[in-house]
Predict the 3D structure of the following.
Amino acid sequence: MIGESHPPPAWNRRKAGANDCPDAARDRACSLLANAAERRAMAWRALALAYRPPTAGWLASLESGAACQDMAGAVEWTPGGADRLARPIERVRQAAAQLSTSPSGGLDEASAEYARLYGADHGLVPSVESAYFDGERQVEVERVYATHGLHTVACDSVAVDHVANQLEFVYVLCRREESAWESADVDAAKRLRRTEREFLRRHLATWAVALLRATEREATLPLYPALAGILRETLAIETRASALRGRAGAGSSARPVDRGRRPGNANG
């Protein structure tokens, strides 16, 4: 889990005042862009939770559609974005509804599937960036976090470059962007938006295809492949990376690096 190493900026919504946006058109633009950043933040947060161990509340939010609505927020402002997510979102809701019929409400089954796929000790799908590349990817990611005054909290049992931590990092950047737009700090907001996209292009987008394809190959329940479909489309739209849609390009050739370890040891 991503934590602040210094007090976070105020994230409470407020309307830009006359001193912030003297021009009415700029005021409206700042408000709209703040709302877009907020929706993207909620989407990345919802996607991060998809790669944390499941909870009963999370499964219920998938079945009700609340979590899916949050996930759609990252791309609903782009032309055709909502249409591209409609099918994978429906697949997620159907998978959650199917699980809900079990005596545990689906929690036992989803927990077992999560451990089988992504478990730190024996997971079949490596869920950390450093498992797919030689070099110091984990150190690079940690350096990026530190540059922005962030760190992974001590109680977190997964590696700093775990997919959930990377998604949560983008969530934090979006929240900061939202705050900048609300303060009419246009330069800061644009800088944060560039940082979000650069981080996705340089890190998560370079290995997401391998992660998502392995999930689809190894899963025995439909839930996690359906969630993989949402993450794939979201990343493709955010990074404009054709590779994430199955064509050649950056990220499509990533494979787990053989370091003489069982695959599960690459999960954090």
Observations:
- Strands lie at 2-4, 150-152.
